[in-house]
User: Fold these one by one.
Assistant:
Number 1:
Amino acid sequence: MIESLPRREREVFEALCSLGEGTAVAVRGAMADPPSDSAVRTLLGRLVAKGLIGHRTLNQAYVYAPVPQADAVAETALQRLVQTFFQGSAARAATALLGMEKRLTRAEIDELQRAIDEARGEAE
């Protein structure tokens, strides 16, 4: 669903996802080229209406957060990223991501090895 959002709604949604939760001011601050404060509030309202985010009141301010389906949205965004920048190759994307990380924990290495084993059909 995220790819069908207008550009500004998608930017607001992605900024909120990166924050985890936040007020309109925090979302605006997380954006590279933010629209006006009132525009961010309007866009947040549209995302609430679409069911992508929710809000709660804290000290007379709305605090917005992605709804639980954010994991599915993240997967869709990742698929779009792989298609756009890595010619659809998850392996190329994974290699690029690993190149960004200088040190991996033993648990991360084990998790990657399990994923490789599953891809090879060697899972236990």
Number 2:
Amino acid sequence: MADRPVFSYFYSMKNSAIGEKIIKTASKLFYSNGYNATGVNEIIAKCGIAKATLYSHFNSKEDICLAYLQQRHDAFLTSFKIYVPERKNGKEQLLAIFDFLTDMYRDGDFNGCWALKTLGELSPNQERIFAAIQKQKKEFLSYLGEIVVNNVVNVSKAEKEKISGGLYLLYESAITESHLFKNDWPIFLSKNIAPSIFERMELV
């Protein structure tokens, strides 16, 4: 499992235990109930802290959301980077994201993609959260590109981008639709479609 994320950008490290409690509490509420439906007062009540305590760690609800998104992203990407090398080289590693998603789906707390759920609630002026989500998705896409390079022989830059982009879009569709339908068939269908993206390639 990933090391505990460090949120020094958002709050003082000397009070990190309180800060992480706020993030943990807000994370559950944002992910299950939604960003807009979760108020600061609810976070304060669930944490059992004073309003002044929360605002001594975070300037705004938006800052809490940014820390929440970063924590979720770091945990997801770190765990996935551990998961992939445990699979056989070649096809299994290229399709690992769908097996990883299946495990996520089977977890009792699955509510789809935390980033896309938040994105759907943003107003035009919430540019910081939008930029953070975009950056995190680019990091995920970049790692899918690394998987392609490591498992497709003599892959060109264009081929790498095509395969990693295809896997990315199939994953994003699968995580959204599996949450919508409360069923894992979108994950299995995406996994079955994925090999067509690299069927003519020589795999490691």
